[in-house]
Automatic annotation (TrEMBL):
Name of this protein: Cytoplasmic dynein 2 light intermediate chain 1
Name of encoding gene: LOC4817923
A GO biological process held by the record: intraciliary transport involved in cilium assembly
Residue ranges that the Swiss-Prot or TrEMBL entry lists as coiled coil: none
Species for this entry: Drosophila pseudoobscura pseudoobscura (Fruit fly)
GO cellular component: axoneme; centrosome; ciliary basal body; cytoplasmic dynein complex; microtubule
Length: 369
């Protein structure tokens, strides 16, 4: 974000102050102590001005399984009622602004990634635009499709990990140290014995298991395997875990409060309970789980978590998932544009006429020969 114009005016004011102090000759030249004192005063004024006038920004990135309800969650949070939610094809941006009584304006940037396929370059956009310092990520997976959600979760994690590592390599050592300290403060209070086995991401990540209303009807053994997989992954990356369904008002409210907490800082405790029972909707805050609570398998890597879950539930690969994508997105009813559709229909008719002419010409030339 660019500094507002008033900050530039403060800078010019400091320069004029020092120029005036030197006009009275050698006796009027300020000492180093005087300069340091005046700079400290101006910096304090700038900090106060920033706290009262500059909006505080946070950024949320929402990604995960297709058709799990990412757009619906965002629209409901912003109180945008849409009768039909069109599919998100690439990367969409929205924002919210809140001004509390006696507080400075707050801005929440929300980015939604439509597809995980070839999303490496798109993931870099929100991270590079707003930075990692104020970033929070929501990974939504479809609990109603256990045969594919691990592939989605692993793809999302690796994209976030690789992109964040590239950005961290370009940061100053001081900024990297600040992010590491924040991460340890977020997850390390109750898991000091597990820290050496974790691969923590430098920003908070909330794994959201969507369509919990369908998940409730699954076989108990399958539900147990899914919950253990998600708990292991959330713990391994230092994230939180929450089950959600838009058909369950209580779960919808918890997710809405969590988005508000990550974006605006309130409420301070969005998870009202700590639930680890696979027969109930999971609700596990940052740093409140451990390998010993998850099971008797001990510390696990991402590869081991996926292999263990793949034995219980064989996963569809990305190639098979790609076959489910519509062959012609232009015919998707969610993207109707009357003027464009009419022009496209006209072009299709012209193309069909040309193809018929070419076919007839070919038959005529074959008869002549």
């Amino acid at each position: 974000m660019r500094l507002p114009q008033i900050f530039l005016s403060w800078h010019k004011r400091i320069l004029r102050m020092f120029e005036k102090s030197t006009e009275g000759g050698d006796n009027a030249t300020p000492s180093i102590q005087d300069i340091a004192g005046r700079l400290a005063e101006e910096q304090q004024r700038l900090r106060q001005l920033e706290a009262t006038s500059m909006p505080k920004e946070r950024t949320l990135l929402v990604l995960g399984s297709k058709c799990v309800g990412k757009s619906t969650v965002i629209n409901k949070f912003f109180d945008r009622e849409e009768h039909t939610t069109r599919p998100t094809l690439a990367l969409e941006y929205s924002f919210g602004r809140r001004i509390g009584s006696g507080r400075s304006p707050q801005v929440m940037n929300v980015w939604e990634l439509g597809s995980l396929d070839n999303a490496d370059q798109l993931l870099e956009v929100p991270m590079r635009t707003h930075g990692l310092q104020q970033l929070a990520v929501f990974i939504m997976v479809d609990l109603s499709q256990p045969q594919r959600f691990w592939t989605d979760l692993e793809c999302a994690y690796k994209g976030l990990r690789d992109t964040s590592q590239e950005l961290l390599a370009r940061m100053t050592p001081e900024l990297r140290e600040t992010l590491e300290q924040r991460t340890l403060e977020r997850v390390g209070h109750q898991n000091k014995e597990d820290l050496g086995t974790l691969e923590l991401l430098p920003f908070p990540v909330v794994i959201v298991g969507g369509k919990y209303d369908v998940f409730m009807a699954l076989d108990p053994s399958l539900k147990k395997a899914i919950c253990r997989c998600l708990r292991s992954m959330a713990h391994h990356i230092g994230g939180a875990l929450l089950f959600y369904s838009q058909k369950v008002p209580k779960l919808s409210k918890v997710l809405r409060d969590t988005i508000s907490h990550m974006g605006f800082g309130s409420p301070s405790h969005p998870f009202r309970s700590h639930v680890t029972d696979h027969n109930e909707p999971l609700s596990i805050w940052f740093g409140t789980d451990s390998w010993s609570r998850i099971g008797d398998t001990g510390a696990q890597s991402v590869e081991r978590i996926g292999a263990t879950f793949g034995v219980a539930v064989p996963q569809l690969q990305l190639e098979k998932q790609l076959q489910q994508v519509p062959q012609d997105p232009a015919k998707d009813p969610g993207f109707k544009e009357s003027l464009i559709d009419e022009m496209r229909a006209q072009k299709n008719e012209e193309l069909a006429t040309i193809m018929r002419d070419v076919l007839l010409r070919g038959k005529f030339e074959s008869v002549q020969n």
